[in-house]
Design goal:
Length: 419
């Protein structure tokens, strides 16, 4: 029976994509469930912040400690944004290093990623779900690949991992094209030609299932831009350079050197989680309560509420809250928080320069800052364009993304040379 089945697979290559369809459906469904949990955590955190602000100083450290404890106890690979873990798994060889891959990509890791990131958000943390969704997607695809591996033609593990990452991005942002571009630019420049069918299939299925379960929608809706003239490009260039400058200390705050410096003053990682929880609570209570969560609601307010504009407190609060939340060691990503901080920078830049097209600079700021942080300019502008369907802004988005990436890369090289 097995021989007959394998013969059919060889004669009908299209059937080889079936395991990717199964995994894609799983990722799309989990993405919807995860999103609902995440949004409920944000709503609850905001409710406590508004009605019982003093209780935030209890809620935040407790949630941060629980989130960090889950990571330490059950899945050390679940901490952080998720993307570095996927890159690490891609660098390992199967089957010689299967145990190391499975320590990074397993169902247990995926569950802990969800629980830890939701707890961090419930504790007014400022990390996102999109990076973790990349990790979760890679976990699910790798597990499905192992299950099907007994009867399916042997497929290299990197194919499953990259396809899972693409499906995760596609489902998280409802942006299949962004999933493909992310894998191509961030994960697999030298391997993409070997796995392109799997990646394309996974990204499409992940995005389609997400839309099927939650309805057709754009991640950020349809912001009004009006006419985008070529005269907007110099403004985009200036904002891109500014975003690149701001990204340098933001990236340094998440570096191992800063984490080690922070850890030097505390005995345990659980203590670090408690302290960072208190700090994040203080930022939300005393500086700006829009620091809570991944920042999608902030972006939507900036784009669709005419009386909502970013000021210095929102920029600083988003910057500090995301940086400090990352130091906690809980699961949580940088993608949405980077978009939110970029949107705040763009809005503030529009205010201080009195540029008329506020929404355009919000989108440009998002693309520019994300480009600098993830070092992937094409991924950044594709994500923003696909989330908003504003193709008229494509040239300002591209210019700002490249300018911010170049500025950030140049400054980081100079800093590294002086150390």
């Amino acid at each position: 029976m097995l021989d007959y089945f394998q013969k059919q697979l060889r004669e009908n290559p299209v059937l080889e994509s079936f395991p990717y369809w199964v995994a894609g459906f799983l990722v799309g469904g989990i993405a919807i469930f995860y999103t609902q949990l995440f949004e409920e955590a944000i709503v609850t955190a905001r409710w406590v912040l508004v009605h019982y602000p003093s209780w935030v100083f209890v809620l935040a450290p407790v949630c941060f400690v629980l989130g960090r404890w889950l990571v330490e106890k059950y899945a050390p690979a679940a901490g952080g944004s998720g993307v570095p873990q996927v890159i690490q798994a891609l660098s390992l060889d199967s089957p010689r290093q299967n145990s190391e891959i499975e320590a990074i990509l397993s169902l247990r890791v995926a569950v802990i990623v969800i629980l830890s990131s939701v707890l961090c958000t419930l504790g007014t943390g400022a990390l996102g779900r999109e990076g973790p969704m990349v990790h979760i997607g890679a976990c699910l695809f790798y597990v499905v690949g192992k299950k099907f591996g007994k009867i399916w033609p042997v497929v290299e593990h990197r194919s499953w991992i990259m396809a899972g990452a693409a499906a995760g991005i596609a489902a998280a942002f409802n942006a299949p094209l962004a999933g493909v571009v992310f894998v191509l630019e961030e994960l697999a420049q030298q391997h993409f030609h070997r796995f392109k069918t799997a990646v394309l299939t996974a990204a499409i299925i992940g995005g389609v299932v997400s839309q099927w379960l939650s309805g057709r929608y754009l991640f950020l809706g349809y912001p009004k831009l009006g006419v985008v003239p070529l005269s907007a490009i110099p403004w985009a260039l200036g904002l891109g350079i500014l975003a690149g400058l701001v990204s340098v200390p933001f990236i340094l705050m998440g570096s191992p050197k800063v984490r080690n410096w922070f850890a030097h003053y505390f005995y345990t990682r659980i203590q670090i989680a408690a302290v960072t929880g208190v700090l994040v609570a203080g930022i939300a209570v005393f500086l700006n309560n829009n620091s809570v969560g991944g920042g999608v609601s902030v972006i939507q307010s900036l784009l669709f509420e005419s009386d909502f504009r970013a000021d210095w407190s929102l920029v600083v609060a988003r910057f500090l809250a995301t940086s400090v939340s990352h130091l906690s060691g809980c699961a949580g990503g940088f993608l949405a928080p980077s978009l939110a901080l970029g949107a705040a920078i763009g809005s503030w830049f529009s205010t201080i320069t009195e540029y008329s097209n506020h929404n355009l600079l919000v989108l440009v700021g998002m693309s520019a800052f994300l480009s600098a942080v993830v070092r992937a300019p094409f991924t950044a502008w594709v994500i923003v364009m696909e989330m908003t369907d504003r193709r008229s802004a494509i040239f300002p988005l591209m210019v700002a993304s490249i300018a911010s990436y170049g500025t950030s890369h140049f400054l980081q090289q100079r800093i590294n040379k002086t150390q």
